[in-house]
């Protein structure tokens, strides 16, 4: 790894902490694998609806700071950015600790990427925010504005009226100019996002398997 790259060991990574606090809980156990992306098996009762946590399971106080989780799938997590650029700014990450896209395993890339979850989650974000234009941004390494060295995609709605961003350089997708997400707002948005995601899954078919 390049010396300029940021790195946390998994036990200190904030996204790994979220993954540990919000495990994947299919309706039946996996036939081959441990439910954490280590193995290729899919349980007979494992469906897409298993991937959206219930309101009880999505308790944001499971982590410090609070985490507003929308999706807790076998290989993929989605949660609100705690320093959002705009309302509905969502992060989609790998469950396992992968620093860059090149570190991802094949199954993870298929699950998180354009093949499956990103389009479904993007539709949910559009429904909740009422904004149909959005950026999907993914950074690899410190020079590319990656702040948390754990693979994640930003889904950032682009409303007609955007807040003023004083620094318009590439750093806008790194730490940049952000406002802290208030717990009350985060909880409210996450409830709406989970509902919208369940509706999107229902269109696909709740019995559909990963």
Supply the key terms.
210 residues, alpha+beta, HIT family, subunit A, five-stranded antiparallel beta sheet, 4 helices, 5 strands, HIT-like protein, catalytic activity, HIT-like, HIT-like_sf, Histidine_triad_HIT
Mind explaining what this structure looks like?
- The chain is of the alpha+beta class.
- It has one domain: HIT family, subunit A.
- The chain has four helices and five strands, in the order αβββααββα.
- The chain has helices spanning 14-21, 106-112, 117-129, 183-204; strands at residues 69-72, 76-80, 90-94, 134-138, 152-157.
- Helix 3 crosses helix 4.
- The protein is globular.
- A motif (Histidine triad motif) lies at residues 150-154.
Describe the main β-sheet briefly.
5 strands, antiparallel
Q: Which whole number gives the mean pLDDT? A: 81
The CATH topology is given as: HIT family, subunit A
Q: Identify the CATH homologous superfamily.
A: HIT-like
- The beta-strand count equals 5
CATH structural architecture: 2-Layer Sandwich
Output the CATH class name: Alpha Beta
Q: Widest sheet: strand order?
A: 1-2-3-5-4
Radius of gyration: 16 Å
Q: Into how many domains do the coordinates divide? A: 1
* Percent in strands: 5-15%
- Helix fraction, binned, reads 10-25%
Q: SS-based structural class?
A: alpha+beta
Low-confidence stretches: 29-45, 168-172
Quaternary organization: single chain
* Number of discrete helical segments: 4
Order of helices and strands: HEEEHHEEH
**Which overall shape is indicated by the principal axes computed on the Cα atoms?**
globular
**Separation of termini?**
32 Å
């Amino acid at each position: 790894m390049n010396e300029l790259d940021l790195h946390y060991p998994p036990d200190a990574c904030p996204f790994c902490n979220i993954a540990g606090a919000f495990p994947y809980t299919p309706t039946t156990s996996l036939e081959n694998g441990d439910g954490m992306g280590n193995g290729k098996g899919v349980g007979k009762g494992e469906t897409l609806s298993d991937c959206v946590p219930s309101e009880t399971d999505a308790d944001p106080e499971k982590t410090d700071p609070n985490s507003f989780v929308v999706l807790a799938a076998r290989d993929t997590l989605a949660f609100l950015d705690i320093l959002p650029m705009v309302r509905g700014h969502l992060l989609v990450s790998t469950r396992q600790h992968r620093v860059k896209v090149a570190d991802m395993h094949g199954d993870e890339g298929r699950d998180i990427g354009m093949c499956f979850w990103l389009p479904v989650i993007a539709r949910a974000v559009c429904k909740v925010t009422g904004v149909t234009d959005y950026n999907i941004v993914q950074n690899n390494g410190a020079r590319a504005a990656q702040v948390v060295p754990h693979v994640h995609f930003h889904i950032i709605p682009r409303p007609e009226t955007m807040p003023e961003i004083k620094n318009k350089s590439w750093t806008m997708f790194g730490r940049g100019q952000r406002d802290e997400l208030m717990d009350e707002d985060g909880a409210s948005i996450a409830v709406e996002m989970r509902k919208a995601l369940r509706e999107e899954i229902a269109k696909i078919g709740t019995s559909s398997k990963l």
